[in-house]
Every structure is written in structure tokens, then in C-alpha cells.
Design a protein that fits this description.
Blueprint: H1 3-8, H2 14-34, H3 39-52, H4 67-73, H5 91-98, H6 112-115, H7 127-137, H8 151-164, E1 166-167, E2 170-171, H9 172-177, H10 181-189, H11 195-210, H12 215-224, H13 238-251, H14 255-263
Antiparallel strand pairs: 1-2
Pfam family, one: Glyco_hydro_19
GO molecular function: hydrolase activity
Protein name: Glycoside hydrolase family 19 protein
Length: 266
């Protein structure tokens, strides 16, 4: 049970897994220094980055929008729906319009919107962020923005983001310790988009890192024991909790001892 297997179970393919793991190895000591120094925090970084990057496959923002897509997502940046027609399927032109004069970027003609478009596992966006996170990790991302899409830098930016971003008095790394995937997700996404997938991926990563059973395995074992944990979806909800409590009461053991009993049931 290793970081390599934790990354692999969350990756889209063996190719993306190999690249992501090699990059982690290259910066592992720096990740520790930033604060990614226990299995909960490692699982949170891996799971959240996997979700945000389509399982480590996407490291550049996709701005290839249709006119309809532009009007739906970036309506406030256009004077009319008709205007979006001249921008459709032109990613550079789109970026320079929708990201102009904000996040530290210059005007539409500066090219900053495209230059500092989203990159990395967590989609670093805007000149201010390229400056801030580049300084934090010791890389000149302003002069070399494509570096933000290299997997080793993706990990470092992700770790710095989790260590710096606070919600309700705690950093996201501290929320990972709880663990509270909902609070980590809100800190990254601003809402709860993709929460179920983030929970599954974080759970898978943690199971691989610790050798403990994942929530999905607990659910399958409880179901096999004749209890009802709800759907086998990797989410530790009220039904799963009730089923595990029932198993503890029935077998008179809990934790690893209960796991061993459930695994021994044919």
C-alpha cells in the first residue's frame, strides 16, 4: 500500500498514473514541507486533484466553447448573444476576453487572459495567482506559465492551495485531518460540485495509503453479512453507519476486529 497505488487507483490510465507518481516522487520532500505530511492529507490532495483534472488527464483549461456555451457560462462578458458568434471555438480569443482586467491580468489586447489561463490539476488562473504561487514554490511562473502544467508543479501548487486556503478558521489541510471532504471541496470549488466523486476518490486513495478498507469495501462486506448499508457507492452515509453499528452490536467487536470477522464470512 503506497502513494503509487493510491495515485494509480485514482488515475484515468497507467500512463497518467505513471506521470503523476513520478512527479510526486520528484517533489515529495517539498510536499512534506508544505504540510502534506500524513495519510489523510495525502489522500485529500490526490483525490481532489484527480477529480479536478479528470483523473490526472487534463492539465490545461478547455476554452473551446461554442457560442451557446459562451453565452451560458460567460454571459456577463458579452454585450449580446450575437456577439459570442465571433468568439466561438477560438480559445485564445475567448480567454483574452473573459479573463481581461481581473485576477491581475491586463486588458484584452495584453494577451494575459490566454497567457495565464487555467493550468495544472487545480487550474491555476490569472497573473496574480501565477505570481503568488510561483513565489511560494520558487518558480517563475509569470515568465514561464506553461511550467504550471508540469505534473511536479501541479502537485506543489495543489499542496500550497490546500495549505493556504481557509474555511471556517481552518486550512483545507486541517479539514482533511478531520476528515471533512465537504469542507475541502467547498474550499476548492466554492460549492459542492462533484462531491460524491471527490469522496470516492479520496476514500480510495486513503485506503491504499493505509491498507484499511475503503468505504466501498465496508459496504460490500456489510451487505454480504446480511445488513443494509445502502448502495455500494463509497459514501459513508447514515445507512452505512447504521449497518456498521448493527454489525458491531451483533459480533461484539469493532474496528479492525470487525473487519476481520466480516472478511471471514463466506
Amino acid at each position: 500500500m503506497t502513494i503509487e497505488t493510491a495515485i494509480r487507483v485514482c488515475a484515468s490510465s497507467s500512463v497518467t498514473a505513471t506521470a503523476a507518481f513520478a512527479a510526486w516522487q520528484a517533489v515529495e520532500s517539498k510536499l512534506e514541507e508544505i504540510g502534506v505530511n500524513n495519510d489523510r492529507r495525502r489522500a485529500s490532495l490526490i483525490g481532489q486533484c484527480a477529480h479536478e483534472s479528470a483523473r490526472f488527464k487534463t492539465r490545461f483549461e478547455n476554452l473551446n466553447y461554442s457560442a451557446a456555451g459562451l453565452w451560458k457560462i460567460f454571459r456577463r462578458h458579452f454585450s449580446s448573444q450575437a456577439e459570442t458568434n465571433s468568439f466561438a471555438r477560438d480559445p485564445e480569443k475567448i480567454a483574452n476576453r473573459v479573463y481581461a482586467n481581473r485576477m491581475g491580468n491586463g486588458s484584452r489586447t495584453s494577451g494575459d487572459g490566454w497567457r495565464y489561463r487555467g493550468r495544472g490539476y487545480l487550474q491555476l488562473t490569472g497573473k496574480d495567482n501565477y505570481t503568488r504561487y510561483g513565489t511560494a514554490i520558487g518558480e517563475d511562473l509569470v515568465s514561464n506559465p506553461d511550467r504550471a502544467a508540469d505534473p511536479d508543479i501541479c502537485w506543489l501548487i495543489g499542496a500550497e492551495y490546500l495549505s493556504r486556503t481557509r474555511r471556517s478558521g481552518r486550512t483545507l489541510l486541517e479539514w482533511a485531518d478531520v476528515p471533512d471532504i465537504l469542507m475541502v471541496t467547498k474550499g476548492i470549488n466554492g460549492g459542492t460540485h462533484g462531491l460524491a466523486d471527490r469522496e470516492v476518490l479520496t476514500g480510495k486513495a486513503h485506503a491504499e495509503l493505509t491498507g484499511n478498507a475503503s468505504v466501498a469495501e465496508w459496504q460490500a462486506l456489510l451487505l454480504n453479512a446480511g445488513l443494509n448499508p445502502g448502495p455500494i457507492d463509497g459514501l459513508f452515509g447514515s445507512k452505512t453507519e447504521a449497518a456498521r453499528e448493527a454489525a458491531e452490536a451483533h459480533f461484539g467487536v469493532n474496528g479492525d476486529a470487525l473487519l476481520a470477522v466480516l472478511r471471514g464470512i463466506e
